[in-house]
Design a protein that fits this description.
- InterPro entries: NadR/Ttd14_AAA_dom, P-loop_NTPase.
- The chain has eight helices and five strands; from the N terminus they run E-H-E-H-H-H-E-H-H-E-H-E-H.
- It has a five-stranded parallel sheet with strand order 2-3-1-4-5, with helices on both faces.
- Helices cover about 50% and strands about 10% of the residues.
Length: about 180
């Protein structure tokens, strides 16, 4: 008797893009369809700081904010590895932290670079800037032009770490989800 074993590789997939490109909407829809998903954590970090009287932690203490994000995103990555699901979606990845620090022109420790090199995602889907759906709110301080610049930094950073970015077309939520699922 001959056995055939199939090795199932864990797919840790990141959705990235500048502010207001629809990442969280897609994550919410993927959750509704039963997929294992991890939400964006920067809003949680920002809201916690606001409760402590710091209106915009990223603007006032960008390195502290980024260190907290990096720690949280590494934890998400490690947790994703332990999930029973073979596919895990994450709203923003570890290289986003470096891209944002480069965007504001601040320096960061070598540990940020090492994290980008040590924790690799299976696939990266990038959502393009989309002015028609862009909205500012209490946690999103950037205007649309700034969001476009951030997008450029995200593209550069992910490419620098060897990622092939799969661009998700501007379309309905349903069609964007189908596009992503078709690519995995």
């Amino acid at each position: 008797m001959r056995f055939i074993f199939r090795i199932v590789q864990k797919e840790i997939i990141v959705l990235l893009g500048g502010p207001g490109t629809g990442k969280s909407t897609l994550i919410n829809e993927l959750v509704a369809r039963g997929f294992c998903c991890y939400p964006e954590i920067s809003r949680q970090v920002t809201m916690k700081a606001q409760q402590e009287g710091i209106e915009q932690l990223f603007l006032e203490q960008p390195l502290l904010f980024s260190e907290m994000l990096l720690e949280g995103r590494i934890e998400q990555y490690k947790n994703a590895l332990e999930e029973p699901d073979n596919v895990v979606f994450i709203d923003r990845g570890i290289p986003d932290v470096v891209a944002y620090m480069d965007y504001i022109g601040d320096e960061y420790p070598a540990s940020f670079v090492k994290a980008c090199e040590d924790y690799k995602y299976s696939k990266t889907f990038i959502l393009p800037p989309w002015e028609e759906i862009y909205q500012s709110d209490s946690e999103r301080y950037e205007n649309f032009d700034q969001a476009v610049k951030i997008q450029e930094h995200l593209v550069d950073t992910y490419k620098k770490y060897g990622y092939e970015l799969i661009e998700v077309p501007k379309d309905t939520v349903e069609n964007r989800i189908l596009y992503i699922l078709d690519k995995i």
